[in-house]
Design a protein that fits this description.
With 311 residues, the protein is an alpha+beta fold. It has helices at residues 6-15, 121-129, 155-169, 174-197, 204-217, 225-231, 236-247, 251-269, 274-280, 286-297, 301-309, and strands at 18-20, 29-33, 45-51, 59-61, 64-71, 74-78, 81-85, 89-93, 100-103, 113-119, 147-150.
Length: 311
């Protein structure tokens, strides 16, 4: 968890109290972080993207914390133990449990970047009480210790990143967006916890999320369905069936949609030639690209660009 900035931090330090670790170690100082320094009357959620350092000592807090290691490497210290962390490591730190992140190096070019999303217990209970199905997520509020998992699909990183942007931008609808994002975190971590409790290291559904994430990042590249099926350990026919169930369309349709969406963005944000855009999203045959684009959008690429100019 990061520290409040400048004057807020100095004020915060004056309020910190020392306490002995739960393990009885007399040479370990554990500090209390109070949510009063992070929350306001209108917003009981705080999100940051922090470069961890050695300035903050081991601490516990009076709020619930979700964390995602985004960049770099280091260690996570909790209860007198230290475990290595790398990008994709996820944590839920309950209220009252002590911990701290430390970078592997103090060099500025090798930071340990961690997203943190914290929420008051009252706000968390209120959120889960107000949505259908929220009761089954409540187990995350009563965990006795730290829960750790791995973000294999990249979905958690996207959720944390989106919440951080919402928190920092302070746009209209910010409070609603942050609560919606927090609910997504609860769902995501609850599924991870259920998988861990059932001894599933990487359920097929999570594997399919990883495949879809790979396709979103490499939509313009050629791929073999057989290789994607191997990623989740199933045969090609089973993969095709599972993909259609997971995505609501077959893999060809899914990739075509990704490519056409990318083409739309490029048509509106650049003045590149249509042929160049088609090539960049994975289509070298212009008649096919034009036909596919019109099928999805209802206009040819040139007509789509022209219509956007006159809106």
């Amino acid at each position: 968890m990061t520290r409040p900035k400048t004057s807020r931090f100095r004020h915060f330090l004056s309020r910190l109290r020392h306490m002995k670790g739960a393990t009885g170690m007399t040479n370990r100082t554990v500090r209390l972080l109070s949510g009063e320094q992070y929350f306001s009357e209108k917003l009981s959620i705080f999100v940051n993207r922090n470069a961890e350092s050695y300035e903050l000592t081991e601490h516990h807090h009076d709020f619930l914390e979700f964390s995602c290691v985004a960049e770099g490497s280091g260690t996570h210290h909790a209860g007198g133990e230290a475990n290595a962390v790398t990008p994709g490591d996820l944590f839920i730190i309950p209220m009252g449990v002590s911990h701290v992140f430390r970078p592997s190096s103090s060099a500025k070019n090798a930071p340990l970047i961690v997203y943190n999303c914290i929420v008051t217990m009252e706000a968390a209970h209120e959120l889960l009480s107000g949505v259908p199905g929220g009761e089954e997520l409540r187990q995350l509020l009563s965990m006795p210790g730290i829960f750790q998992a791995k973000d294999r699909s990249g979905e958690a990183h996207r959720l944390f990143s989106a919440m951080h942007r919402e928190y920092a931008a302070e746009r209209p609808g910010r409070q609603a967006a942050l609560h919606a994002g927090l609910l997504q975190l609860f769902v995501f971590f609850s599924r991870l916890q259920q998988g861990a409790d059932e001894g599933m290291d990487m359920p097929i559904t999570n594997g399919m999320d990883e495949v879809m994430d790979w396709l979103r990042r490499h939509y313009a590249d050629p791929f073999a369905v057989e290789e994607l099926a191997c990623r989740i350990g199933v045969g090609e026919r089973q993969f095709q069936r599972l993909f259609a169930k997971h995505a609501g369309m077959n893999i060809t349709q899914y990739v075509q949609r990704l490519r056409i969406e990318a083409a739309c963005r490029l048509l509106l944000s650049t003045d590149r030639k249509v042929g160049d855009i088609a090539e960049s999203v994975g289509y070298s045959h212009m008649p096919f690209f034009n036909s596919l684009f019109k099928k999805h959008i209802g206009l040819t690429p040139r007509a789509y660009r022209k219509s956007a100019v006159h809106r």
